[in-house]
Amino acid sequence: MPFPPSLSQATFATAVLASAAGCIIGLTPPNPSPPSTAAGTPPAPTTLSRLRHFITNGNLNNVILAPIAVLSLHTVGLALTHPLTPSWIPTTARLNPRRISWSTDTAVPLALLLCVGIPLRLIAFRTLGDSFTFKLATPKRGLVTTGVYRYLQHPSYTGAAVIFVAPMVLLYRDDGAMGCWMPEGVGRVVERVVAPLVAAGMLTLMGMRVVEEERMLRGRFGEEWERWTEGTARFVPWLW
């Protein structure tokens, strides 16, 4: 291992570690899910209800975070040892130096994570406080329209979308750390087919959750909610 690593490689490794830590924090429930208040015998579980339970209890996020953590640590190791590579890695024949150093391919997703996705998620956590739960529930503090919520109705979902997609652009690469452990054909399929399908599925599920949340807020706060939504964007200020 070259010691010390160059400043460029050291800062890149630090950014990757910071982004991985931010993803873990941003996808970990900040508060426990509230208990169900429904009276009577609960209905028989359906496929959709099981899927919703899997998501709102953070299980799906754990599935997403595990490969992000592993690939981030591997990318950091490759970055700090570059141009040398550890002998225990199965193959580095396809490894592209642009994937383990500062380049447009890495700077853009890292910037989106560190400057947009993770901050938005954490700001939403802090603003809503104990009202922020992964399970759909009426806000304990009423309708929050201050802070970042003066401009966005769903900043946490904007942040989550970036956290879902940007790591795939950064890490799920056949010519990056992932490709060191997969045959070429498999790595290419994961990068070009599996990762996009997973991202699309996550965004679809998130969209379904947004619709449910808006329906709940409209029913609970009525005209107050409608006035607030008229003057704010849903996900991107002044655009959408």
TrEMBL record:
GO molecular function terms noted in the UniProt entry: protein C-terminal S-isoprenylcysteine carboxyl O-methyltransferase activity
Enzyme Commission (EC) number: 2.1.1.100
Alphabetic keyword roster: Endoplasmic reticulum, Membrane, Methyltransferase, S-adenosyl-L-methionine, Signal, Transferase, Transmembrane, Transmembrane helix
Top-level EC class as recorded in UniProt: transferase
Main localization, broad class: endoplasmic reticulum
Gene3D superfamilies: 1.20.120.1630
Catalytic activity entry: [protein]-C-terminal S-[(2E,6E)-farnesyl]-L-cysteine + S-adenosyl-L-methionine = [protein]-C-terminal S-[(2E,6E)-farnesyl]-L-cysteine methyl ester + S-adenosyl-L-homocysteine
Subcellular location: Endoplasmic reticulum membrane; Membrane
Gene Ontology BP terms: methylation
Signal sequence interval, chain numbering: 1-22
GO terms under cellular component: endoplasmic reticulum membrane
InterPro entries on file: ICMT_MeTrfase (IPR007269)
Transmembrane segments: 63-85, 106-124, 154-172, 193-211
Pfam families according to UniProt: ICMT (PF04140)
Topological type in the membrane: Multi-pass membrane protein
Recorded family membership: Belongs to the class VI-like SAM-binding methyltransferase superfamily. Isoprenylcysteine carboxyl methyltransferase family.
Protein name (record): Protein-S-isoprenylcysteine O-methyltransferase
Species this chain originates from: Schizothecium vesticola
Taxonomic path: Eukaryota, Fungi, Dikarya, Ascomycota, Pezizomycotina
